[in-house]
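Design job #97: recover the sequence.
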């Protein structure tokens, strides 16, 4: 690889590689960048010569990156992000003028919480802001954060990459959520036996919470009866509203979904770790005013004074 060739590469050429990595399509990249397909193909030919690598291989599934293309993807993302940071330092960040797209990976509970609390405030201040939510799949979401495919990842990550920064925006107490019509709803307090004899709904992804509940019940000589295991939080509220089941959920869950379903809650008769709302972002965005603006607003809307 000729160093002189590398030094001649332009930012727009790197943007084409970045777009092809996301779209896997010459036509979609051309449309997104307001260029012709011929211009994209010619630029790709020049880059292949400069890098002395195919970068992309045309397959029936689209333009697939070579091993070299995959390796340079995060480096190109870093270069382009650094250029955006330089631009932002040269002119102050103004929410009212931003056209950024905020991409967040989180579970559907956090998504609902953000849609109710934070997103309206962000879009009030930044009317041209676009917000996209991605499903939270731990290893995949971390990869997306590192590659720059998403802006923020919301969820607890036990072992953070050295390149990921995080902050805890709030903690939510775990409570027993049930319908107002449930037989336990009228009780002033509930016992461990009440919890053990109830019909529970659990969310598959909340492995640690599910294990903690089972352990607490076993310690008290009770067993967990869980006839329903769901893949996400969303349907739980509807099922609880019918009155036959209970679920151990963050207290914030009741705050959100009781607006739509007749739900109430009881404090648990045993200790449970609180759920932390952990916001994670790549360290390259540490000085990015847009990222800081978003994180500041998430922290503000989930502070104890706002609950």
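Job complete. Output follows.
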């Amino acid at each position: 690889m000729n160093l002189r060739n590398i030094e001649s590469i332009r930012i727009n050429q790197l943007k084409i590689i970045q777009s092809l990595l996301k779209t896997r399509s010459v036509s979609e990249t051309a449309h997104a960048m307001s260029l012709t397909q011929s211009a994209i193909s010619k630029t790709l030919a020049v880059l292949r010569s400069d890098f002395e690598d195919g970068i992309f291989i045309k397959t029936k599934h689209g333009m697939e990156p070579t091993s070299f293309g995959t390796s340079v993807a995060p480096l190109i993302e870093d270069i382009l992000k650094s250029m955006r940071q330089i631009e932002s330092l040269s002119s102050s960040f103004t929410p009212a003028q931003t056209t950024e797209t905020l991409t967040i990976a989180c579970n559907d509970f956090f998504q609902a919480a953000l849609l109710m609390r934070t997103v309206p405030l962000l879009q009030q201040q930044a009317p041209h802001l676009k917000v996209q939510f991605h499903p939270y799949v731990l290893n995949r979401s971390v990869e997306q954060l590192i590659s720059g495919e998403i802006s923020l990842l919301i969820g607890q990550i036990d072992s953070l990459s050295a390149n990921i920064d995080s902050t805890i925006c709030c903690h939510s107490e775990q409570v027993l959520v049930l319908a107002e019509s449930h037989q336990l709803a009228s009780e002033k307090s509930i016992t461990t036996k009440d919890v053990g004899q109830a019909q529970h709904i659990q969310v598959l992804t909340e492995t640690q919470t599910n294990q903690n509940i089972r352990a607490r019940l076993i310690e008290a000589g009770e067993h967990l009866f869980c006839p329903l295991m769901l893949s996400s939080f969303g349907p739980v509220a509807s099922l609880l509203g019918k009155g036959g089941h209970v679920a151990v959920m963050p207290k914030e869950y009741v705050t959100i979904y009781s607006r739509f379903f007749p739900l109430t809650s009881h404090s648990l008769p045993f200790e449970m770790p609180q759920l932390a709302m952990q916001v994670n972002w790549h360290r390259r965005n540490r000085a990015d005013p847009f990222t800081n603006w978003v994180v500041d607003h998430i922290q503000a809307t989930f502070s104890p004074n706002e609950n």
